[in-house]
Amino acid sequence: MATPVIKALAGVLADTYALAVKTHGAHWNVTGTGFFQLHDAFGVQYDALFTAADDLAERIRALGESAPAGIGTLAKLANISDLGDDHEGRTLAKALRDDHRAMSKSCEKARAIAEKAGDEATVDMLIGRIEVHDKTAWMLDAYSAK
Fold first, then answer.
1. What is the CATH number of the domain that holds 106?
2. Cα–Cα 20 to 30 A to 86, which of 23, 58, 67, 131?
3. Residue 106 has pLDDT above 60, yes or no
4. Is the pTM of this model over 0.90?
5. pLDDT tens for residues 10-41?
């Protein structure tokens, strides 16, 4: 039976994977001013998110549970919306900024659950994820400012 820590990690994993896929879609579809900058930045971001998803899944395995797998399973657990139809650079940057802010909050909730359970390794991992999401949100916000 999954513990509260496992359930929280599974949610963060699903959201991370969904954000990786959304960011990959932004990389493919971005248009307008700043195309080259955003195309490259989104590429770096989706690579980092896929690596983070792998780390989160491996943490779940290290805690003795199976990591959620499959698009359908992950989609049911995820709270990140699909990429919209407006692919203009600033629009995408703002949408992804909002997703990173939401991810930071989700990671903070999971961190608190892990802390309550005395799972210091998971706490440390989630603090690292919070730092990444906060920094990425700041960078996307700076790009999308007029």
1. 1.20.1260.10
2. 131
3. yes
4. yes
5. 999 999 999 999 999 999 999 998 999 999 99
**How many domains does one find in the chain?**
1
**122 token code pair:** 């998971």
Q: How far apart are CA 110 and CA 116, in angstroms?
A: 10
- The mean pLDDT value of the chain amounts to 97
Q: Are 68 and 126 in contact (CB under 8 A)?
A: no
pLDDT band at 1 (very low <50, low <70, confident <90, very high): low
Q: What values do phi and psi take at 56, rounded to 5?
A: -65, -45
Taking residue 58's Cβ as centre, other Cβ atoms within 10 Å add up to 11
Sign of CA dihedral 24, 49, 21, 95: negative
Could you tell me the maximum CA-CA distance found in the chain, to the nearest angstrom? 50
Structure tokens at 24: 């990959």
Phi and psi torsions of 74, nearest 5°: -65, -40
